[in-house]
Task: inverse folding
């Protein structure tokens, strides 16, 4: 197999000689290693490598994308043939202007770690074994039921009709642990994870300890009465909600197609004036930091909400050209054969000043939510949030009254972040590429017993 | 590079020669075409070909899985070597697998009259464009996305206990999302209809009716309120029961979760976990579902009765899980593609029909909710605690058996076992569906499934709303 850049350039050569008006070649090589730990031993080790190619083919204003795994240049030739056939049959897109006329790289560091690129299996096994001991040492009612590692090394190359090929290398790391606690006939569980680009801040002990503590706290959990409550969403819980409901509303294609509640809201105060939100793809060392987006546009830092005021939507090249403006470096693909679409890089919700514990103490009677399921199914078009609480405490003046489970919290994200907003904490955690502090809201609807 | 039985046997022999005690080799090629019309414009016409192979090996010290997208022999050979070396690094102490008593040779191909990939792209684009415009022509529809998905999935699995299985499955479907906007209130409604087979299914279905009804529902839902939060008597339609059974119960019956202690059903075989009315099965080949004639460890997929008249009878298994649970093979080891090792997954998981008519289900509901699947966005379960949640489509408030008000943003939640014990009527109207646009997710792997069941009535379920 050819080196990746040469492969991309050869593919461009094939497309150029086929008479296309514009073309783009996007190639990824991904090497991954996973370890899964179940019942006191490593259940499976998985490892492999894939090369994926995406070809964006333009004939005048007719555009198509084809792609897939490849073993040789002849696979690329077959894909190119299919793509040209489809493009010829496609109607013109009157909104099409061009592929990005210039591509390049933003300076970004700490996105590659040799220890992730070439994982140490023995060390990983040792960490998993040690992870299993911690819950028992903490409390005999707690035990680890499963845990695992995922190491990914990725190389991307992009080239188009207007520019030379560029490439970057990055790594991603995931560690997760699931703890259960048993007492009499009662049982409870909690899963915690760490996702990063380097191993720099990885400490499995604190992750296991947190999961064990929450699983133990869940043993006391019971249903609560239906009503309205003040709530605190801990950082990862709000991070997941922001990724599901807030982020898609910022994508320029959703705005342009009337699928966002943020249509015509630029320059208006949409959130509470204490809330600042940034999208930053070129910040050092964060989960989705990279030198360029998936169409070669250098990544950037943008204020999305400043003091609650919406400053910009997020654009790829296509949606930016529709408004005669520059891409914000947010053109990302689900897979190499998907068209690029606006998406968040790293969404950063700026922290406040108070720490989570004192915020909880100061709020009187409050439900502190540590775990939910189903929040990702909330509706970005209406802004309606629904999430089922799986792990939470009912707290009064800093004292835990009892654990709460099996209740559904509901609300509108924009009402929560404006009229119902109480405070934002200084403790930040990442739910993959969303970096969020804890956040508190007043009078939130909770369906319980 | 194409794959075939000879290459699979050569790879298996190589794994055994390198020291594997047991091996499964899987070649997988998937072609997927997606056409998207967004607000009257062709937004995407993409075509993806993903092919590669994976090898799962068991050695005396552990289990390894290695894969490659490069199907030249030198790459396959290196992949097999890597699977052996990582299996040896796994160092499991209690590794065992269940073998097939009688190894099977299986060949399965879905009947296809018209190859959907060979249909003129113009024809497909025109159909979608017309449907998209039909939706947008309705007043108060703010936006509409119409997709056509075409999938041809070819798989060859060989196991060192003599199994050899090959399948070629073609699926087609159309999906639509209509966004209604009435004043400042918006609502989206998404639905899809998929068929296993060729383009002939696209040609004979009433797509205009499908789009018109969906668009009408999006507008009506935009005007609707959310329900008052609380506990309701509920009638679940065929789609909601499918979602519920799959999410709320099916995942907990997956033997790998039982093995690790992550399922609320662990240690409950033979226990009464639902009402007498409840019988639940997992079946590989069923009308309306996604065909799974064998799993990705070369085990034939049989009809597995998981719950019979409320009693938990079986867990779903893979080879390693069956050995651990001292249980039989059910043919449920499935992988999304060659980059994943198979894990225990459902195939077509559904509730068996009962004796009640639809009228009987509704007639004694004094106040409740009719939970509808059209427009449902999916669900999630915490199988270790039995907590589930799912977002159903626009639904109706029921009073004295009548549908009195449409409500939107309906989220139901509860505990699996509480709900199954509260099922007090199961209707006769079994319906099972699948989709070429999505499937079931677990551990980062998405696989096609079928789900469904008859209408049922439950005495109480939590409904969230503003």
Result:
């Amino acid at each position: 197999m050819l080196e990746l850049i040469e492969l991309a350039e050869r593919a461009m050569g094939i497309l150029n000689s086929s008479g296309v008006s514009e073309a783009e070649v996007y190639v990824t090589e991904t090497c991954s290693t996973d370890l899964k730990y179940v019942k006191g031993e490593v259940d499976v080790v998985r490892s492999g490598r894939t090369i994926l190619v995406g070809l964006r083919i333009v004939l005048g204003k007719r555009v198509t994308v084809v792609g897939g795994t490849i073993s040789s240049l002849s696979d690329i030739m077959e894909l190119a043939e299919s793509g040209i056939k489809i493009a010829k049959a496609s109607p013109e897109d009157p909104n099409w202007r061009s592929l990005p006329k210039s591509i390049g790289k933003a300076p970004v560091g700490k996105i590659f770690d040799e220890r992730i690129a070439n994982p140490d299996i023995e060390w990983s096994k040792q960490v998993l074994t040690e992870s299993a001991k911690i819950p028992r040492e903490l409390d005999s009612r707690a035990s680890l039921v499963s845990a695992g590692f995922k190491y990914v090394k990725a190389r991307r190359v992009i080239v188009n009709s207007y520019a030379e090929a560029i490439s970057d290398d990055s790594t991603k790391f995931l560690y997760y642990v699931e703890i259960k606690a048993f007492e009499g006939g009662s049982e409870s569980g909690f899963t915690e994870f760490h996702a990063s680009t380097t191993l720099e801040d990885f400490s499995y002990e604190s992750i296991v300890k947190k999961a064990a503590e929450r699983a133990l706290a869940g043993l006391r959990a019971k249903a609560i009465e239906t009503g309205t409550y003040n709530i605190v969403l801990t950082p990862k819980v709000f991070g997941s909600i922001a990724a599901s409901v807030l982020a898609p509303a910022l994508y320029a294609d959703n705005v342009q197609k009337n699928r966002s509640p943020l249509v015509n809201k630029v320059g208006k105060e949409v959130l509470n004036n204490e809330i600042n939100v940034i999208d930053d793809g070129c910040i050092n060392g964060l989960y989705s930091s990279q030198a360029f987006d998936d169409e070669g546009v250098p990544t950037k830092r943008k204020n999305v909400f400043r003091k609650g005021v919406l400053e910009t939507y997020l654009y790829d090249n296509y949606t930016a050209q529709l408004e005669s403006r520059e891409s914000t470096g947010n053109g990302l693909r689900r897979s190499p054969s998907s068209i690029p679409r606006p998406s968040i890089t790293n969404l950063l919700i700026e922290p406040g000043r108070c720490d989570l514990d004192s915020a909880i103490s100061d709020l009187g009677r409050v439900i502190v939510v540590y775990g939910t399921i189903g929040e990702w199914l909330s509706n970005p078009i209406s802004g309606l949030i629904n999430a089922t609480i799986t792990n939470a405490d009912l707290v009064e003046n800093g004292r835990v009254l009892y654990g709460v489970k099996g209740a559904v919290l509901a609300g509108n994200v924009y009402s929560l972040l404006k009229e119902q907003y109480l405070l934002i904490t200084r403790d930040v955690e990442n739910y993959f590429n969303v970096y969020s502090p804890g956040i508190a809201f007043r009078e939130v609807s909770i369906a319980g017993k | 590079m194409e794959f075939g039985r000879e290459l699979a046997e050569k790879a298996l022999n190589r794994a055994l020669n390198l020291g594997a005690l047991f091996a499964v080799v899987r070649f997988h090629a998937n072609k997927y075409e997606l056409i998207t019309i967004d607000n009257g414009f062709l937004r995407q016409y993409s075509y993806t070909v993903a092919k590669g192979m994976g090898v799962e090996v068991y050695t005396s010290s552990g289990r390894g899985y290695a894969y490659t997208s490069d199907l030249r022999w030198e790459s396959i050979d290196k992949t097999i070597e890597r699977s052996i070396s990582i299996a040896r690094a796994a160092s499991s102490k209690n590794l065992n697998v269940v073998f097939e008593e009688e190894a099977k040779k299986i060949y399965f191909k879905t009947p296809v009259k018209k190859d959907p990939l060979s249909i003129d792209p113009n024809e497909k684009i025109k159909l979608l464009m017309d449907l998209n415009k039909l939706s947008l022509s309705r007043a108060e529809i703010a936006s509409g996305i119409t997709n056509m998905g075409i999938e041809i999935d070819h798989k060859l699995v060989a196991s060192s206990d003599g199994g050899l299985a090959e399948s070629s499955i073609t699926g087609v479907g159309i999906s639509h999302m209509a966004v209604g906007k009435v004043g400042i209130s918006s609502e989206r409604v998404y639905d899809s209809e998929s068929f296993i087979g060729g383009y002939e299914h696209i040609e004979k279905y009433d797509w205009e009716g499908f789009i018109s009804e969906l668009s009408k529902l999006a507008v009506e839902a935009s005007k609707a309120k959310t329900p008052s939060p609380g506990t309701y008597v509920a009638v679940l339609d065929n789609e909601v029961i499918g979602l519920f059974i799959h999410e709320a119960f099916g995942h907990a019956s997956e033997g790998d979760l039982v093995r690790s202690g992550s399922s609320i059903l662990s240690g409950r075989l033979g226990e009464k976990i639902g009402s007498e009315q409840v019988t639940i099965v997992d079946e590989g080949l069923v009308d309306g579902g996604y065909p799974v004639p064998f799993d990705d460890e070369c085990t034939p997929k049989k009809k597995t009765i998981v719950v019979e008249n409320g009693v938990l009878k079986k867990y779903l298994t893979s080879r390693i899980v069956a050995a651990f649970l001292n249980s039989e093979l059910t043919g449920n080891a499935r992988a999304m593609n060659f980059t994943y090792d198979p894990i225990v997954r459902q195939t077509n998981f559904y509730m068996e029909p009962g004796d009640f008519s639809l009228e009987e289900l509704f007639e004694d509901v004094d106040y409740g909710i009719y939970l509808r699947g059209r427009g449902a966005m999916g669900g999630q379960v915490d199988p270790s605690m039995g907590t589930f949640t799912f977002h159903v489509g626009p639904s109706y408030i029921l009073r004295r058996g009548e549908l009195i008000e449409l409500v939107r943003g309906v989220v139901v939640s509860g505990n699996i076992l509480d709900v199954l014990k509260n099922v007090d009527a199961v209707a006769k109207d079994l319906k099972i569906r699948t989709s070429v646009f999505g499937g079931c997710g677990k551990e980062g792997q998405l696989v096609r499934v079928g789900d469904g069941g008859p209408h049922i009535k439950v005495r109480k379920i939590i409904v969230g709303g503003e």
